[in-house]
Design a protein that fits this description.
Elements lengths: L1 H12 L34 E9 L9 E10 L5 E12 L2 E15 L7 E15 L12 H4 L4 E15 L2 E8 L19 E8 L1 E4 L2 E12 L4 E11 L3 E8 L3 E11 L2 E10 L10 E10 L13
Antiparallel strand pairs: 1-2, 1-15, 2-3, 3-4, 4-5, 5-6, 6-7, 7-8, 8-10, 9-10, 10-11, 11-12, 12-13, 13-14, 14-15
């Protein structure tokens, strides 16, 4: 009940005027799914790449976020362009948000072989918000923000990103929620979809034929609210298994594992453990990842995918 009350309070605050709240879904497997955080990554794997993820956050905390996602992207043959599709469903307490979007990326080659390039990406789509007002308890039964807002509506969404891509490293910046669509119809509230800044970076160090290290960093900043960053290190063992650990600022730690199962298949798992005030209210976060690359487009490709 305590957890439900906290989620309900945070949910209502997101609709209040001048309020700030993190609205973007959170991922821990982004190092194998950069398209989920930057549309400029579309086509970067030189294959038809599809993946699905499922994340259940703060297990034991009633009303905590649960996120499911699926996306697919691929380069266009013999062109410096790529296309992608994204689907996501994010549930937090009484709020259920489903996103559908299409992405386009254009790549500028920095060398003749096309191994180093800058990619620009844009993604447009729509978010369907569904609110179960009956699941919340109010001190004021006539709350104008809640009861003057439709329980099921659509809003447009636009994301933009740019990435530098090289065989052993990447750096990207993306902005999501650029349109800042309004989330309430009530005159008393001005809750909007806030713009979020994401910065991604990583580099590969090949230490031997059987060991590679990948330090990485990820910054997520809701421009109307909080900022958070990850600093981590992953190790690739025998070109088969990735083991990773990261520190997430103002939260705790993230442990991850990915298995390169062969024939383009990747299976991953991440576990987030809070070291802040949430530690007493939940038993961790679990995230599953399944990815598959189908290299039928005859694009230049690397034997091992480092990102």
């Amino acid at each position: 009940m305590r957890g439900k009350a906290v989620i309900a309070f945070g949910f209502l605050m997101a609709f209040a005027a001048e309020a700030s709240a993190q609205q973007q879904a959170l991922y821990s497997q982004y190092i194998f799914n950069l398209f989920a955080v930057n549309p400029a990554y579309a086509g970067a794997r030189d294959a038809l790449s599809a993946n699905a993820g499922y994340r259940t956050q703060w297990v034991g905390f009633e009303g905590a976020p649960v996120t499911g996602s699926f996306n697919v992207h691929a380069p266009l043959a013999k062109k410096n362009m790529a296309l992608g599709l994204s689907f996501q469903n994010d549930v937090i307490g009484a709020r259920n948000a489903s996103f559908m979007g299409a992405a386009y990326a254009y790549q500028i080659r920095l060398d003749e072989a096309g191994k180093r390039k800058i990619s620009f990406g844009i993604q447009g789509g729509a978010i369907n918000y569904r609110f179960d007002w009956d699941a919340l308890e109010y001190n004021s039964p006539g709350d104008p923000v809640a009861f003057s807002t439709n329980g099921n509506f659509w809003i447009p969404n636009v994301d933009f990103g740019v990435m530098y891509l090289a065989p052993k490293g990447y750096f990207g910046v993306s902005l999501s929620g650029l349109r800042q669509s309004r989330l309430t119809e009530a005159a008393e509230g001005d809750g909007r979809l806030s713009t979020a800044l994401n910065v991604q970076a990583g580099h590969i160090f090949l230490l031997s034929e059987s060991l590679s290290l990948k330090p990485f960093a990820f910054l997520r900043h809701d421009l109307s609210g909080p900022a958070q960053f990850d600093l981590g290190l992953s190790a690739l063992l025998a070109n088969r298994v990735w083991l990773g650990a990261a520190y997430r600022y103002d939260f705790g730690t993230v442990l991850s594992m990915q298995l390169l199962a062969g024939n383009g298949l990747v299976v991953g798992y991440a576990f987030d453990w809070a070291l802040n005030n949430l530690v007493a209210s939940q038993s961790g976060t679990h995230e599953l990842f399944l990815g598959f690359d189908l290299g039928f487009l005859k694009q230049p490709k690397h034997t091992v995918r480092y990102y």
